[in-house]
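Entry 14. Two folds queued back to back today. First construct below, sequence then structure tokens.
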Amino acid sequence: MNSSTICIVIAIVAYLAVLLWLGFRYSKSNESTGDFYLGGRKMGPLVTAMSAEASDMSSWLLMGLPGLAYLTGVCDPGWTAIGLGIGTYLNWLIVAKRLRHYTVIAGDSVTIPDFFENRFRDKTHLLLGISALIIVVFFVPYTASGFAACGKLFSSLFGWDYTVSMLVSAAVIILYTAMGGFKAASTTDFIQSIVMTIALIVVVIFGITQVGGISATFDYAASLEGYLSLTQMHDAATGSAVSYGGFLPILSTACWGLGYFGMPHILLRFMAIDDPKKLKLSRRVATIWVFIAMFVAIIIGIVGLSMVHTGVISAADDSERILIIIANKLSTYGIIPALIAGLCMAGILACTMSTCDSQLLAASSSVSENILKGVFGLKLSQKRSMLFARITLVIIAIIGVIMARDPNSSVFQIVSFAWAGFGGSFGAVMLCALFWRRANAWGAIAGMVGGGAMVFIWKFAIKPMGGLWGIYELLPAFLCSLLLIVVVSLLTPAPSKEITDEFDRVKALKD
């Protein structure tokens, strides 16, 4: 092991040690499952903003997005980033404050399934059980993609066995999350967002200087047919441009932003802030960071391609490892650059861990709080509830580890499918729950089941037909869910006066 590798290892180990320390520190402040899963609603505005966006971006930001730009050009990642940026802003603007108020008034709901059941007064527990099951179904593979990203990182850097690398990374995530719960996850996510930002800035500056400046970087990209186009993609195999398909595919890609309205791990941040008045500051910080971070991530893909062209680095066998290859090159320039490169590698871990910890908490709360205690009526003391919550989290993580055994799995593809799953299942239901007085439990159930089913139907039965049918499954799933909510709600009895009065109380709140 040479000196540069040792410096990288030191930086990463120090970073992981901080995360474990935070997990241990916050383990003492979890006195109830409400503390464990929602931090007692005591989060500040900056932690709320940055933990939400760090948990949102995942390994997709530093691996999936640059890898896609490196491989095909700016069209696909560009429209995805535009949609996500707009979706981020709208989610903070129209959902955050009302959800914070509504979850308190509607039975002091701690989880998203709790909120749906309390909002619609569903005595059958169908909404609770179905929404909890959907969270588990889509979060387990989502978490697995994060574990896979960690395995790819260490195997690429040090030549370590992929499975061992993945297991070690997963163990760290499980430990600090199981110990510290939501407070540890949110605080570490805040730190991880800072590390991610440093990684993005360092890598893009280093890469641009290596190829001779911004002009040289973009001159080569511009010479490739379709690479810098927003209506075409570059086909590296043939060297020619390929049409993106016109307005509908562009719209469906930009509709990634619809997914935000149904992301449990992001919505929980809105619910956890201590003062709803501070959400305005959180919105500004989160939106600015997201737009800048995604723009820089796409630039990294372009920079990586120019670095390969000029011979600075070798071509990436796996496009999603391009940032790792650039950072590894940085480490060869001395001890200080190697330590900085180690921080960049920690940035990739930060992307992954900040999402995995939030997903593990959301999935374990769905099983322990919503399915076992809510649906099946399991009675537990606070102490046993905490123990059960931690055990559930570990079991779900183990399932994710098993699913992450394949080192060739695509981070972008897994995240894309899970994102569509949540957006299609929960997005329209959440919006109707917050803003449509006439929505009822049967409409919510129909929308949730129909939207979730459409994700699978479109992905595996309709999308393979190609052409106009080849659009991203989130858009048809969201529209299907919305249609079902409206139709079924109007065909079934109107909500009770108790429900509509509560809706009006929330609507009347200004702060």
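Second construct, same run, same settings:
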Amino acid sequence: MSSEFFIGEDAFPAVGFGLWKIDRDETAGMVHAAIEAGYRHLDSAADYGNERETGEGIRAAIEAGCCQREDLWVTSKLWNTYHRPQHVRPACEKTLGDLGLDYLDLYLIHFPIALEFVDFDQRYPPEWFFDPDAAEPRMQIDPVPLHETWAAMEELKQSGLVKHIGVCNYSSALLHDLMAYAKLQPEVLQIESHPFLTQERLIRLAKSYGMTVTAFSPLGALSYVSLDMATESESVLESAAVRRAAERTERSPAQVVLRWGVQRGTAIIPKTARKERLQENLALFDFTLTDEEMSAIAGLNCDRRFNDPAVFCEAAFNTFYPIYD
């Protein structure tokens, strides 16, 4: 298994550094440290609220001689409030300005959820509530057809602001629909995937359409315990299949699970706020899991989705809005 995929002629590193839930005051230092440790794939988003600090870390790493801009693959995502075609380019330009970059390597539709526009000067990032100060704040849905948003994404690629475009959190049905109207086909699908949510059919479908698949939350529950969206008892790292493979390979359980992710042919974006974990999460390409170990870990699948709008939108944002059946 190579440490990179190719999208067109561009190398897409198989392991990225995820920027979700990294505190702003730590982001610049963590980004610099990640690049210094060897990461060349950074996964950002407007909604993470730390793109300005991410840009500071990128600049510091370049100035320190760790890399050049063209060595990096920088991903960002279009937030839900900017789905109207007239807001797509300004949202991308806002991200580029915060990152201090001239172009993005990849821009993704973050969710197939369109919310009412919130002006940048009013609140940025706008998050999920339309009016967080309302007596009963809620999400305010804006009925924007996804094909209109995608057409505006295509214009970004044609303009040169972004090199590649794709989608996050799409289902098989939405992918089929997207392929029916896309003039420029999506090149990347980013989804939650880990041993408890293998999503094998969706990944197979995306690959059949020529898409590269990126798995977010590749370690499963670990990203969600602090948000009360998972319990520590749901950690895949404690499973017997993972423990046995870790013992045989003399690697950590986390490295085994991450290796499983890249060995099955997906890019992964593990997140850590601990600098000592950076090297560990990259050290995945000098050992291999056996077919039996791969099957045993895949056999842990129980369709446990931690990042589910049907659950968190109602619990946190007073709005029931499922996107998966």
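Quick look at the second one. Residues 4-317 form a domain with the TIM Barrel fold (CATH 3.20.20.100). Residues 85-99 form the longest helix (15 residues).
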